[in-house]
UniProtKB/TrEMBL annotation:
InterPro entries reported in the protein's UniProt record: Luciferase-like_dom (IPR011251), Luciferase-like_sf (IPR036661), SsuD_RutA_monooxygenase (IPR050172)
Keyword terms, alphabetized: Flavoprotein, FMN, Monooxygenase, Oxidoreductase
Highest taxon listed in the record's lineage: Archaea
Protein name (Swiss-Prot/TrEMBL): Flavin-dependent oxidoreductase, luciferase family (Includes alkanesulfonate monooxygenase SsuD and methylene tetrahydromethanopterin reductase)
Amino acid sequence: MRLGYSINSAVPATRSVDSHTNCLLERVRTATDAGFEYVQAGDHHAVSDHAYLQNVPTLARLTAVTDHVAPLFLLPLHHPLHLAERCGTLATFADRFELWCALGYNSEAFRALDVPLEERVPRFVETLGIVQSLLTEGFVSVDGEYYSLDDVSISPHAAPERVCIGASAEPAVRRAGRLGDAWVALPTETTDEIDSKREWFESEGGTEVIARRDALVLEDGERARNVAADLLQSGYRGWDVEAEYPLVGDAETVAADLEALTEAGVSEVVVRPMSTDHAVETLRQCGVARDLL
């Protein structure tokens, strides 16, 4: 079982941006020491109610303490040339680089960037193909539905180690099997749902399944459950207070959850700590849990 660390790029209202970035560096060091394979960062735009750290510059800074980065891009919101150039630059700072991508759903971001939401699927497919060509080929010519390039080249090149596609609905999971190396399941997918949807992914040629999981894991499992319950009751991510998909408890309990995910065909789990106050211990204890498998 491989572990990845999904950073929280949103800066809590109770913290300064400087304080948050310093905490991120500490957490990435902790995750690396605990045996996490890589650091992953998401992609949001037109965020108005809090500060948000964009993925490429943030991961570039974090390569000071990790050698494996995985930025996720909402592909319909990016021009493929600009995205490929940023990927090439980021990859020069890391020994290992992955390209993660998804459709996106926030209508406000699509409006702000003047991209029709109803075009997101064909834009996703076209953008992914162009980006992969730009990152691996000398000169690229494309006459697409949305973008046209005539003998365009970028440098530095950076063939991603793999392409990981986030998806949940059947057409999207099947698309991930056709176009990607790995399917990234939503953090709200139950183990049974992942096991069932995996058939769609594998029927299209996909092999690797990645589960996203929010987590609160402490040496004191009862305390972890109490803190997680308080967070859920206060509206954490809008989830039900009885939500079963977060990893909550002590290392031994969470090891059993990881084992269940393994049995459902999951090869790795991307962990996002639920609490900033307990993030460091959660990362350490998730590493312990993985070692118990």
